[in-house]
Write a structure and sequence with these properties.
210 residues, alpha/beta, 8 helices, 8 strands, thiamine-phosphate diphosphorylase activity, ThiamineP_synth_TenI, ThiamineP_synth_sf, thiamine biosynthesis, Aldolase_TIM
């Protein structure tokens, strides 16, 4: 079942100045149509407290709500999908567990990983890191603009239609060059929620991508 995937994904993060709930409220008011709630520091009860408020906000604004990992919360809140960060996760098994109606995204940092996600039925992929990022530190090689260009070329040659989003340290000034590589869209967190003016930052991203 082919799902609608938005071209700009806003990802919440643990930051001092704004709660996850506040981040989602601001993003939705700015026009966000896709929010990924990424919180790996709270108990299930705390997560559900957040998610239930966030889901209500997303419903009010017609925004898709994706939750990072925490698939055990399926059915306990109004969640449209999950983003799985484990690059070794079995997406065939996840699909069987979550069902066809649930949107499932995955993370990859190699072309081989993208191909596997496509073959195992992921609905989209976050491909990164584009450049150095403090939001989700890892030791993976930086992809850079040329890396995205090469990856998308290989996917097209193999008739792979997986929506690929550039993620990891993307700023507004990078968007034009990234979109020219053929990536489907952009996922962003710190460049928006740690900008000082989150509304303006979101709109800057949105205006570049729409």
């Amino acid at each position: 079942m082919k799902k609608f995937i938005e071209k700009l994904h806003f990802i919440t993060h643990d930051i001092e100045q704004l709660s996850h709930i506040q981040q989602v409220q601001i993003a939705c008011e700015a026009g966000a149509k896709w929010v990924q709630y990424r919180c790996l520091t709270k108990s299930d009860d705390e997560l559900l407290e957040d998610i239930n408020v966030i889901a209500e906000t997303c419903d009010d604004w017609g925004t898709t709500l994706i939750v990072t990992d925490h698939i055990h919360l399926k059915g306990k809140a109004d969640i449209q999908g999950f983003h799985i960060e484990d690059m070794d996760a079995d997406f065939v098994q996840l699909r069987a567990q979550l069902g066809e109606d649930v949107t499932i995204g995955g993370s990859a940092n190699t072309v081989e990983g993208l191909i596997r996600l496509f073959r195992e039925g992921a609905d989209y992929a976050g491909f990164g890191p584009f450049t150095t990022t403090t939001t989700k530190p890892n030791n993976a090689p930086l992809i850079g603009v040329e890396g995205y260009r090469k990856a998308i070329k290989i996917l097209k040659e193999q008739s792979i239609t997986l929506p690929v989003l550039a993620v990891g340290g993307v700023t507004v000034k990078d968007i034009d060059a990234l979109l020219e590589t053929g990536v489907f869209g952009i996922a962003a967190s710190a460049a928006i929620n740690q900008s000082g003016d989150m509304t303006a930052a979101y709109l800057d991203f949105y205006d570049k991508i729409r």
